[in-house]
Prior knowledge:
Elements: H1 4-19, E1 36-41, H2 49-63, E2 67-75, E3 91-96, E4 105-107, E5 116-118, H3 124-127
Parallel strand pairs: 1-2, 2-3, 4-5
Amino acid sequence: MSTPSDRTAAGRLSRQLLDVKPAAARRRRPSEGPLRILHLLSQQPGKTGSGVALLAMVRHGAEAGYRQHAVIGIPGEEPLPGIPPLAPDEITAVRFDRPPVPFPVPGMSDIMPYRSTRFSTFTELMRAPPSASPATAPSCGSSRRRRSSPPSCGRPAPP
Length: 159
């Protein structure tokens, strides 16, 4: 429960934020070319709130003439999704559920439209950067042998 002093402090901070005047934006020179934007999303475009937001940002960026590229996370077996108006060579997929990323697509919720892992349940191994060579990337278990199904990475199997 908040106290009157908490509400006063929050009100003061809110007013300060509302009073902020951004500095004038520097205009890009024509010789610099169009603004380049790299979108990063560890989830499937169009299937979650952040995926829908990505589609809208890409569409508006294209209307403004920006050069764009998207790096997205998708389950290993899924085909590369379309992100209009980006061409397939403007989309890079990080495929989850297979080496070097042998766990499901990460997300904020356990209610996703596809198999996923909550960020809050990541193990140390899942947070570690993948090895340089996918062929030698360790699975989430202690063995380097190939597995017929994705490893659990220290999490209980989904129901």
